[in-house]
Amino acid sequence: MSSPLPDHAETVARIGELFRTHGYAGTSLSQITQATGKGKGSLYHFFPGGKQDMAEQVLAQVEGWFSANVFTVLDTAAPDDAIARMFAAVTQWYRAGRRGSLFAAFTQEAATRALFARRIEVFFRRWVVALRNMLRRAGVTGGQATYLAEDTIAAIHGALMLAQGLDTPRLFTRMMDRAQETLYNALPQ
């Protein structure tokens, strides 16, 4: 008995993993059909805009996950809890440094970056603003809150790239612990 074809959300997730691994330009339609178990006709039925439509839906899925698991937490939870939950979610999402960043993959290819620049910018700005606002609610001053938010998100993505470049996932976990500690230490007592 063959395995069932994935539902649409799973199809989008599988395509996302291909884009994350091979980049947008480096992912072929044959790789997509193989990974999803769907023929070209079926793919174009669900993604009438072709590969760009697939990428838009992948980005929307990632944005939805971050909205539910990171941004909303930063917007609503108490500072200590928000920090802990944000780092737990990020560590889960990036599989403790074993999974690359889709946004990093999309920003590395000039043509791809041009296609999705606005979405990438909105995603990162939303994260910076959510983290900055949480820090301000906790009593961190305006400019310092912005710098901490930017530094934290840069640390997350830099640690991810370094951990993957060195094939040392534990480096990601160690850097996440340090970034989390930096935020805790910045909170007024």
UniProtKB/TrEMBL annotation:
<dbReference type="Pfam" id="PF21993">
    <property type="entry name" value="TetR_C_13_2"/>
</dbReference>
<dbReference type="InterPro" id="IPR001647">
    <property type="entry name" value="HTH_TetR"/>
</dbReference>
<protein>
    <submittedName>
        <fullName>TetR/AcrR family transcriptional regulator</fullName>
    </submittedName>
</protein>
<feature type="domain" description="Transcriptional regulator LmrA/YxaF-like C-terminal">
    <location>
        <begin position="81"/>
        <end position="166"/>
    </location>
</feature>
<keyword id="KW-0804">Transcription</keyword>
<keyword id="KW-0805">Transcription regulation</keyword>
<dbReference type="Pfam" id="PF00440">
    <property type="entry name" value="TetR_N"/>
</dbReference>
<keyword id="KW-0238">DNA-binding</keyword>
<feature type="domain" description="HTH tetR-type">
    <location>
        <begin position="17"/>
        <end position="58"/>
    </location>
</feature>
<dbReference type="InterPro" id="IPR009057">
    <property type="entry name" value="Homeodomain-like_sf"/>
</dbReference>
<dbReference type="InterPro" id="IPR036271">
    <property type="entry name" value="Tet_transcr_reg_TetR-rel_C_sf"/>
</dbReference>
<dbReference type="InterPro" id="IPR054156">
    <property type="entry name" value="YxaF_TetR_C"/>
</dbReference>
